[in-house]
Every structure is written in structure tokens, then in C-alpha cells.
Design goal:
7-stranded mixed beta sheet; 29% helix; alpha/beta; single chain; 2 domains; 331 residues; Quinone Oxidoreductase, Chain A, domain 1; 15 strands; Rossmann fold; 6-stranded parallel beta sheet
């Protein structure tokens, strides 16, 4: 057994770094020593503040103690006899905010040389946003709107650009996030609520509304406005998973304008596109410079300061994008 530490939600709005024991890796497992983990401020923020309705899947999922996080990068320091990953290899894995992880060797993804671990830790959020891109069915020169310039919205924007979309608008009320969206390839950013942005959207998209609208906000009140912001016969992608789905309301736009509403989620894997293949594509785009991420990390915390990190997501969330836990001095 190996003594380790992990971030734990012990109760509502209570986060602490606690000890736990890690087993030695089995025959086809590896032991990873964590370098960086990335907070998913949307998902983890909802969990931390219990911003969800009773009876939802969130309510069924969040029990205490709760171990948050799913974006980890580190080095393999031990491996079972049948493991195919080399000791010393930097890898990404779906694991919580913890100093060590023992996982099956087919559940880790090699990080190419030259990619900083804090940058590589975006792999999981990029994968989630990719599921939205699949459902959007982007075409060359496409017209796209991303509502919300938080972490998932930033990734959705970058997938649209990488897929060859012609005009990609981003709407958010936080100016800092919009500047980052411009660096990521947005052709128009609007610092307004979505219902106040319609005139500018039409002007930018050639007198009409965009064909695809991606709602990345997780804000139940946005859904009705997303329906109003897409062109006739267009497609609205629900990529942000709200904790209060009963508060999302359809409007007459759905029927009268022939809209499609499609849900996208992390678990919608298939044989072609899954955790491994999407992560490999993501890393290749980062290496080639087609996915710019160096501007996204806004805050770094020591794991010991996890209580402050989560409290900050409630007091200054609009200023935050990439919130990174540094588990050791970077190699």
C-alpha cells in the first residue's frame, strides 16, 4: 500500500485534502504519480454547491464523501508485468484530484513530448466538447454560435474552428472569457446576455442566424433563448448539463421553425470516437498548433488550498477558466 492524498468533498461546500491508501498495481495496471489535475468548474461547481434539483441524476450521484475531478496528468512510476505502458511515460487519465492513481493500462493515454502537463490536463474537457461537435455535424464554412465561454464553451469553439466552420460567434457576459475565445478563433464575441445579442448575430452571420447553436452553459434559463438564436431548420446542441432540467422550457420555435434539439454527453462513445481516439486527436492538434491552449489556465492552487480553490469558483467564477492543482514541481 502507498500513502497518498486526495481532494474530498466532506459535505456541502466543504473541501479538504485527505489521506488515503493506494494499492500496488496489478498485472495489467499502472501506478501514476500525478503532476497536474484540472478542475471542471462547471461539473465540480454544481457538485460543490449542490446546485441541482432533488431526484435528478446529480442528486443520485453526489453522496459524501465525494471525490471530485476527472482530468489528471502524471508519470507512470510502477507497472504490472503485463502492462504495455512504459515506466516514466507521461500519461493522461480520467482520475480525480489525487496524488496517485492505479488504473488499467488501457485507461491511460500517452501525452506527446513537448506538451506541458497543465495544458495536457484539458484533454477530458476537450473530449466532452467533441461529443457536441459530433452532434453538430459541422460542415466547411458553417455558421456556429457558442453560448457560454467557460471551459466547455472554449473547447466547443476550438472544435468548430478545427472542423472548418466559417463564422463562429461566442456570447458571454464575462469580458475576460471572450478575449480568450478570440484567441481560440472566434470571429465575433458579444459581451451581452444571449437574448440581447440577436441583432449583432444576424449582422455577423450575413443577415441570418447561425445554423448551429451550442449551449455550453448548464444554465437552465438559457435554453429558450438558444432556440430563438438558431436559424430556421437549424440545430441546437445541449452540451451543458444543467442541475435543474425541469426549468428548461421549450418554446414554439421548436415546431414553427422546424428546429432540431440534440443532447451531447461525455458517455456517448462509439467504436470510432471514444476516450482514446478523441484524446489522440486532441493531442495531435495541440502539437500542430491548431488547438491553442496556452491562454486558458487562469489559476493554479496547491492541493492543500483546495478549500480556497472551490470557494473561489463561487465568488469570482467569471474570472476563471482553467483551475489547475499542482501536485508537484513540474519536471
Amino acid at each position: 500500500m502507498i500513502a497518498s492524498r486526495r481532494v474530498t468533498f466532506t459535505a456541502l461546500r466543504e473541501a479538504a485534502l485527505q489521506p488515503f491508501q493506494v494499492t500496488e498495481p496489478g498485472e495489467a495496471e499502472v501506478l501514476v504519480e500525478t503532476e497536474r489535475t484540472l478542475m471542471s468548474i462547471g461539473t465540480e461547481g454544481i457538485v460543490y454547491s449542490r446546485s441541482f434539483a432533488p431526484g435528478t441524476h446529480w442528486d443520485n450521484w453526489v453522496k459524501y464523501p465525494f471525490f471530485p475531478g476527472y482530468c489528471a496528468v502524471g508519470r507512470v512510476i510502477a507497472a504490472g508485468s503485463a502492462a504495455k505502458v512504459q515506466i516514466g511515460q507521461r500519461v493522461a487519465l480520467r482520475g480525480g484530484h489525487a496524488a496517485h492513481h492505479v488504473v488499467a493500462d488501457d485507461k491511460v493515454f500517452p501525452v506527446p513530448d513537448g506538451i506541458d502537463p497543465a495544458v495536457a490536463s484539458w484533454f477530458a474537457l476537450a473530449k466532452i466538447a467533441f461529443m457536441g461537435a459530433l452532434k453538430a455535424e459541422f460542415t466547411l464554412g458553417d455558421q456556429v454560435l457558442v453560448i457560454g465561454a467557460g471551459p466547455i464553451g472554449q473547447m466547443a469553439l476550438r472544435w468548430a474552428v478545427a472542423a472548418g466552420a466559417g463564422r463562429v460567434s461566442v456570447v458571454d457576459t464575462a469580458a475576460h472569457r471572450l478575449e480568450t475565445a478570440r484567441l481560440g478563433g472566434a470571429t465575433l464575441t458579444i459581451a451581452k446576455p444571449i437574448d440581447a445579442a440577436m441583432e449583432e448575430l444576424r449582422a455577423h452571420h450575413g443577415g441570418q442566424l447561425p445554423r448551429v447553436v451550442i449551449d455550453s452553459t448548464g444554465n437552465s434559463a438559457v435554453f429558450a433563448h438558444a432556440l430563438a438564436a438558431v436559424r430556421d431548420y437549424g440545430r441546437v446542441i445541449l452540451l451543458g448539463d444543467t442541475g435543474r432540467p425541469a426549468e428548461q422550457h421549450l418554446t414554439s420555435d421548436l415546431i414553427t421553425r422546424g428546429l432540431q434539439v440534440v443532447g451531447a454527453h461525455d458517455v456517448h462513445n462509439n467504436a470510432q470516437w471514444n476516450d482514446r481516439t478523441i484524446t489522440e486527436l486532441f493531442f495531435s492538434l495541440v502539437q500542430s498548433g491548431r488547438f491553442r491552449l496556452d491562454d486558458l489556465n487562469t489559476d493554479t492552487f496547491a492541493p492543500e488550498a483546495c478549500a480556497d480553490a472551490y470557494a473561489a469558483t463561487e465568488t469570482r467564477r467569471a474570472d476563471m477558466l482553467g483551475v489547475v492543482f499542482n501536485w508537484r514541481v513540474a519536471a
